[in-house]
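User: Here's a chain of 327 residues. Predict its fold as tokens.
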Amino acid sequence: MKEIKWGFIGCGDVTERKSGPAFNKVSGSKVVAVMSRKKEHVRSYADRHGIKKWYTDAQELIDDPEVNAVYIATPPSSHATYAIMAMRAGKPAYVEKPLAATYDDCVRINRVSEQTGIPCFVAYYRRCMPYFLRVKEIVKSGTIGKVLSVQIRFSCPPRPEDYSPDGNLPWRLQADIAGGGYFYDMAAHQLDLLQGLFGVITRAHGYSSNRLGLYPVEDTVSAAFCFENGLNGSGMWCFVGHESASEDRIEIVGDKGMVCFSCFNFDPIHLHLSDGMQSFDIPAPEYVQLPMIKSVVEDLQGVGACTSTCVSATPTNWVMDRILNKL
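Assistant: Prediction complete.
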């Protein structure tokens, strides 16, 4: 493909803040159509972003002859359906993370991609961001020596929308739509990032519970996991903790030092060595998905290779399903 002409399925908040405008900032990439089931919403989105065509039916967008690639920005429960529709129509898909709401749906996507020969990419965009590439450089260069252990710690207070006396919960707290609760939405980034560094996680066990009772899905999770190279890791997630306990931290411990960084806040990276601590302050780009979208476009143009595919993304769903005892 010389020019990638995108059709969006879904035009929610993520496309406004993280991804949508970035598609037009990459050379050889252009957004030509957008779809949402809500007519007024999609028409307004198209007008505001200068997109000439809009649809309320996903199949109509996929069938549009001008569209030659599809970005799927809907909740996870519909990812498999839309990705498979796009690939069977001969059009590559770029899917929001996680790849699907279940590991089994990920397997279905992989099967169709293999059968059709059409690629499917996944928006684990931290793999391409300068902040996390610096972490990768520190680890791969041997600066902290042989890596011995990995630990994820995350805690945040409840969000205002978590208090929903009328039962109208955000989709991220509806397991049949999201795959789980906030864990399924947020831990996906952390676990994919670590697998990009250390290889596939082959063993995982976890305990989840609902401690505060604000909503039906889990609000606290603890887990232990093991990578294919024998490296052990652990994680703790709490989505209803007191603000004094707020934390967004990943620690990678080696026999010569340790590197600590955040996944969501972009706090300075701290490198601890025998001779002291170094700090690296690397801000996020204006549109955090821009480096990943550039990688996807270059892959489709045949001038690069994107490492975040449906194949690489599937183990993350497997790990999360194991931790939540869904497998």
